[in-house]
Design a protein that fits this description.
The strands form three sheets. Strands 1, 2, 3, 4, 5, 6 and 7 form a seven-stranded mixed β-sheet that branches. A four-stranded antiparallel β-sheet has the order 11-12-8-13. Strand 11 and strand 12 (254-261) form a beta hairpin. The relative contact order is 0.07. 53% of the residues lie in helices and 13% in strands. The chain contains 18 helices and 13 strands. It has helices at 17-28, 55-72, 101-119, 138-142, 149-154, 169-174, 197-207, 269-282, 298-311, 320-331, 341-344, 346-353, 364-372, 380-403, 412-447, 454-495, 501-526, 532-563, and strands spanning 4-7, 10-11, 34-41, 46-53, 88-97, 123-127, 177-181, 186-192, 212-213, 234-235, 242-249, 254-261, 287-293. The protein is α+β, with helices and mostly antiparallel strands.
């Protein structure tokens, strides 16, 4: 899975588009960055920018943006309705895929340190990146705003986490920055078959974490109950990590419950949808669909698709595209207008930006034509990985057929687990189809490096050795991944739908060929690698996998023969 971080910096300029463009230009100039949204606000005099990419690229783009903002925004002249204390007021990092919150926190501190030391901007770390509990809350870090920053910086209790603890001439211009790692926020509106804002609000209060004010006698028009401090006593809603309100949308002629899910790990989108449906139904109202505002990580819809399939007692070991389709239809994400995954899922948007030619995107005939051409790649390594793909696909197919077999309804979950394993192995092997060709190209690129001076020769030799090592590791990974496919094929021969036993057998044949084909690549690439200790260990491991693969394939095929 590609490691992706979203960054949502807020800049203290929302009126001068030329200033804003200077900032977004430096973001877009970083290779691998996709600028997703630029949302300026005149009243707040603030612009929210959203971009995404792999961690290192995001950190570089964020640093350049903070630097540029400090050059083109003068906080001494800033006025706006929104709380703020710096040119780059806040800069949260959000893990999207392939990266944990803990890892994102490390990147946040890496960026904060660089901003503080290299740019001389005071930095406060909040939310998950906070260095102490009171700094978790952004409002605490920003208390006093820009006008109170000179006093805040000299207060020992509010010394910045990074950067100068003094209001010098430069800080007077740039102000301070609050930097964090936080959860992904999903904005979703639930469409109701009513025009009543009051009823939509009632549903929103039922579910949002904050809930509603408690009233005497439990009556809507009862007097609000206050605590000893004079604050209203709240009855919490049912969904943690959510904010919600009801409103009427004239464009659609319906009321909606508008919700921000601030912690999708605690409250996934599908859980929120089901809860809103239940609370609406209790009030005699139907949820006709939902509308996701902005973008979502792929995992959000994949998890939803799996949830709704499990509700039907159906296998979740289906393709990614099928899971997303189930999620869209189950939550009615296309109720008001079409929902196009390629335009709404972050990872798909980034894939669309990748102009490199991928083997796995070719048709079967085009893949065969490309292989049969005079080009040396794709070669045996990519074909070996693709044979593993076919083996995993056949294993998953038999598992899915078994999950849906009449009379085996009580075993759907058993086979769903096998099918899901098959899908996961299929996806990894698909990646290795292209990665084997990329590893070959790395070697060719290394050999093409200049070799005139002694320094160039050393650099070229090192590059060749590094590329060769990777060209060994990729087919070895193919062997290890494909070997796991045997478990699925063997299980499907033994316990799967007997009508599909030969399909599982063909899957085992494909898997054996994938492993032996990848073994050939490991062995030939080892010949060009100078670290003989590494080579010895790799060849021993590869030979063990090859030998075991032949034995297991023989065992499976014998069982197929007996079962026919």
């Amino acid at each position: 899975m590609k490691r992706l971080i979203e960054c949502v910096p807020n800049f203290s300029e929302g009126r001068d588009m030329q200033v804003i463009k200077q900032i977004t230009d430096v973001i877009e100039a970083v290779e691998g960055i996709r600028l997703l949204d630029v949302d300026p606000g005149a009243a707040t005099n603030r612009t929210v920018v959203t971009f995404v990419g792999e961690p290192e690229a995001v950190i570089e783009a964020a640093f350049r943006a903070i630097r540029k903002a400090g050059e083109v925004i003068d906080m001494r002249k800033h006025k706006g309705e929104h709380p703020r204390f710096g040119a780059t007021d806040v800069c949260p990092l959000v893990p999207v895929s392939g990266i944990t919150m803990e890892e994102t926190v490390k990147y946040a501190h890496q960026l904060a340190k660089r901003v503080g030391e290299d740019l001389g901007v005071p930095v406060y770390c909040y939310e998950y990146a906070a260095t102490e509990e009171k700094r978790r809350n952004l409002a605490n870090c920003r208390a006093g705003e820009y006008e109170g920053l000179s006093k805040k910086l000299i207060d020992p209790a509010w010394k910045p986490d990074y950067g100068p603890a003094q209001f010098n001439d430069q800080v007077a211009i740039t102000g301070a920055t609050a930097l964090s790692a936080r959860d992904f926020l999903v904005a979703i509106n639930y469409n109701l078959n009513t025009t009543s804002t009051r009823r939509a609000n009632a549903i929103a209060y039922d579910v949002r974490e904050k809930g509603r004010p408690a009233r005497e006698g439990g009556k809507i028009n009862g007097k609000a109950i206050m605590d000893d401090a004079g604050n209203p006593v709240m009855i919490p809603g049912t969904l943690k990590g959510t904010k919600a309100i009801g409103w009427y949308i004239e464009e659609y002629g319906i009321a909606q419950v508008s919700m921000n899910i601030t912690n999708i790990a605690v409250t996934p989108v599908h859980k929120a949808f089901e809860e809103v449906v239940a609370k609406a139904q209790a009030r005699g109202i139907r949820v006709t669909g939902a509308e996701i505002v902005g973008l979502v990580p792929k995992k959000t819809l994949i998890d939803a698709g799996k949830y709704f399939l499990k509700q039907q007692q159906r296998s979740v070991g289906v393709s990614e595209a099928e899971l997303i389709k189930i999620a869209v239809k189950s939550m009615g994400l296309d109720d008001l207008k079409p929902f196009y995954p390629n335009e709404r899922i972050i990872e798909y948007l980034l894939d669309a930006d990748d102009k490199s030619k991928k083997l796995i995107d070719l048709t079967c005939s085009a893949f065969a034509d490309e292989t049969a051409s005079e080009s040396p790649a794709p070669g045996g390594g990519s074909i070996a990985a693709y044979m593993g793909v076919l083996g995993a696909s056949l294993g998953a197919m038999v598992a899915n057929l078994s999950a849906h077999k009449a009379g085996w309804d009580d075993r759907w979950e058993e086979f769903s687990i096998w099918a899901e394993k098959g899908q996961a192995l299929k996806e990894e092997l698909l990646f290795l189809v292209d990665e084997d060709t990329r590893s070959f190209n790395k070697i060719m690129d290394a050999f093409a490096l200049p070799k005139g001076s002694e320094t160039e020769k050393q650099a070229r030799t090192q590059a060749i050795q590094e590329a060769t090592k990777y060209a060994i590791e990729v087919p070895l990974r193919t062997m290890k991944t494909a070997f796991k496919v045997f478990d699925i094929c063997k299980a499907m021969v033994e316990i799967g739908n007997p009508n599909s036993i030969t399909d599982a057998g063909v899957g085992a044949l494909c898997t054996r060929s994938a492993i032996i084909g990848a073994f050939f690549n490991v062995k030939i690439n080892c010949a060009g690698y100078k670290d003989k200790d590494f080579v010895t260990v790799v060849l021993q491991e590869a030979e063990t996998i090859r030998t075991q693969a032949i034995a297991i394939e023989t065992e499976i095929i014998e069982k197929v023969q007996k079962g026919i």
